[in-house]
Design a protein that fits this description.
Helix content is about 5%, strand content about 60%. By secondary structure, the chain is mainly beta. A ten-stranded antiparallel barrel has the order 1-3-4-6-7-10-11-15-16-17. A hairpin with a 3-residue loop joins strand 4 (about 95-110) and strand 5. The protein is elongated, with a radius of gyration of 21 Å.
């Protein structure tokens, strides 16, 4: 095996920040907005909602874990796109339990690329206080994806993973806590959240084996580190367009701990 220092530095610095999966929060009033479903009656104590969403995270920073004293923090930025469906069970127009199922694709500083691969999550939202048009709620969710890089580019050279067939992944896990409020007026409901995100990326296995593109006989094994999100506190703002009692369209922007935009459409059954 060959262990050249400049390629090792490239992987340690660029590989780990590559996943950025913080996910849609949704309107604080979501559990109480739609009172009548396609099949459920106004007096039903539970109902189902089905939503489709497009989520794009265009900036987030990660750092080494543990942080090395006296060293500069990682400045790597990541891009992540997600297509997903969200299935929600609503109870008494106050509590939502939901699951997220979809695919996500990674691009990191035009250096690391992956195809769309399976991602999933689950969580809940509860309305803590409500009036006719004002809502305060909290949301907790877990989101995860095992990203298998398609290839890497370093100084214009493609580097292919040799142990790709053996299952080399960057395992991402995130827990997101949110507290927000919403003021609904007619069919428009703007909202704002304070958010706290704990995100971590673990390589599996801890060594990536790549092939040197100028010689197929040269293999390079590189040890990898775990990474954690650089900023945990953030905020989100958005607005929901409510169409009658059955459907909603929301647009959301998240910032500080991540920079992301999301659009989603939901229908109650």
């Amino acid at each position: 095996m060959v262990r050249p220092g400049w390629i090792g530095s490239f992987f340690v610095f660029f590989l780990f920040p590559g996943q950025l999966l913080a996910m849609l929060i949704g309107n604080p009033g979501d559990p109480a907005f739609s009172k009548i479903g396609v099949f459920s009656s106004p007096n039903a104590w539970c109902s189902l909602r089905l939503a489709v969403l497009e989520d794009y995270t265009y900036r987030q920073r990660f750092r080494d874990e543990p942080k090395i004293r006296g060293s500069d923090p990682s400045q790597t930025l990541a891009h992540f796109a997600t297509h997903a469906a969200l299935v929600t069970l609503n109870l008494e127009e106050r509590i939502d339990f939901y699951g997220i199922f979809g695919t996500s694709r990674l691009q990191l500083n035009q250096e690391i690329y992956s195809d769309f691969q399976f991602s999933w999550g689950f969580g809940g939202k509860i309305v803590l206080f409500r009036t006719e048009s004002f809502f305060i709620s909290t949301d907790i969710k877990y989101f995860s994806s095992a990203q298998e890089p398609r290839y890497f580019i370093c100084e214009g050279l493609p580097l292919n993973l040799v142990n790709l067939s053996n299952g080399f992944y960057l395992n991402y896990a995130e827990t997101q806590y949110s507290l927000g409020m919403c003021l609904s007026s007619f069919s428009i409901a703007p909202y704002i959240y304070a958010t706290y995100v704990i995100a971590k990326i673990d390589p599996n296995p801890s060594i990536a084996l790549v092939r040197w593109p100028l010689s197929q006989d040269i293999l390079i094994d590189i040890p990898l580190k775990s990474m954690v999100g650089f900023h945990r506190w953030g905020m989100a703002v958005g607005a929901t367009l409510i169409d009658g009692d059955k459907s909603m369209l929301s647009v959301e922007s998240r910032m500080f701990n991540e920079n992301a935009v999301d659009i989603n459409f939901s229908l109650r059954f």
